[in-house]
Design a protein that fits this description.
By secondary structure, the protein is mostly helical. About 75% of the residues lie in helices and about 0% in strands. It is globular, with a radius of gyration of 19 Å. It has 13 helices and no strands. The chain has one domain.
């Protein structure tokens, strides 16, 4: 009996979401040329909250969380939005968009490690080797090809370290999110997480000049902010969760590998960043290692 073909639309949605997230690093770099870091984060997620909230309401998924869930959702918002974006946006002040994208690709590796340490999960020898391969790739990317320099901290910027820390932080957020994903549809949970993240980001605004700084933003800056808010923090999440409902999770996960490639291509055109041999080689090691860690021999 022949297997019916899978619908194409979920795969298109997943690919679009990943492509948008890949380009988000470039948009952030453009916005950083004109605006303080946390102002960018606040505007991005204020707009994203409106877009995502509109979809949640239109689909009849919105309801207020129970009181017992508020503290947990607030913690997720603090980790997944406030802390995560603080690390990435401040890090990107001194590191390249392409480097950021390669490092972020390692998140599944950190999720696997957390599963072993705290959830009692086990890794095969193949997966364990994958962790080592990905770690070597990170060292090559951060060391710009000279792995030995990392031993002395040479060539390693504060921005590199902040971006690197954002990967395990998102892994922690992902693992902790599993509980709430059992209680809420993904888009609704992300809406509530985004609400609390925006709330915790608000105190930074006065220190950076408040929203008055937006009056001096140029047209390219506004395009970047709109892209970050509408597409990266709004539509991309809707597309991604729609795709996850209609396609195998491992198919969606494999598309994450497109993210650094999109970031590199867009950064080359918009920012003039060059794809060095070290970045390409280290990136390929990262992708190979992540594939080894996430590969399921039982499929």
């Amino acid at each position: 009996m022949s297997v019916p073909p899978r619908p194409l639309l979920p795969y298109v949605k997943a690919a679009l979401a990943v492509a948008v997230w890949g380009a988000s690093f470039v948009a952030t770099k453009v916005a950083l040329a004109e605006l303080p870091p946390m102002t960018i984060v606040w505007v991005r997620f204020a707009v994203g909250l409106l877009v995502l909230g509109g979809f949640v309401v239109a689909r009849g998924e919105f309801r207020l969380p129970e009181v017992r869930d508020l503290a947990y959702l607030a913690m997720l918002g603090f980790l997944g939005i406030t802390v995560h974006q603080w690390l990435q946006v401040h890090g990107m002040q001194t590191t390249e968009a392409t480097t950021t994208a390669w490092i972020v690709t390692t998140i599944p590796v950190f999720i696997a490690v957390l599963g072993v340490l705290f959830l009692g999960e086990r890794l095969t020898l193949f997966q364990s080797l994958g962790i080592l391969v990905a770690a070597l790739g990170v060292m090559v990317v951060l060391g710009r090809g000279d792995v030995r320099s990392l031993a002395w901290g040479a060539g390693l910027s504060v921005g590199d370290m902040l971006v690197f820390l954002s990967a395990p932080n998102w892994a922690v957020f992902s693992v902790l999110s599993r509980r709430e994903l059992q209680r809420h549809p993904p888009a609704r949970m992300m809406f509530m997480v985004m609400f609390f993240g925006l709330l915790f980001t608000t105190p930074w605004l006065p220190a950076e000049g408040g929203l008055a700084v937006l009056f001096r933003v140029s047209a390219p800056g506004w395009v970047s902010l709109a892209f970050l808010g509408v597409f990266c923090s709004g539509l991309a999440y809707v597309f991604w969760y729609d795709a996850l409902r209609a396609m195998p999770a491992y198919h969606a996960g494999s598309m994450i590998y497109l993210e650094p490639l999109v970031a590199a291509a867009v950064a080359g055109v918009v920012l003039g960043e060059s794809l060095t041999l070290a970045a390409l080689g280290g990136g390929l090691l990262i992708v190979t290692g992540v594939w080894m860690v996430t590969f399921d021999w039982r499929r």
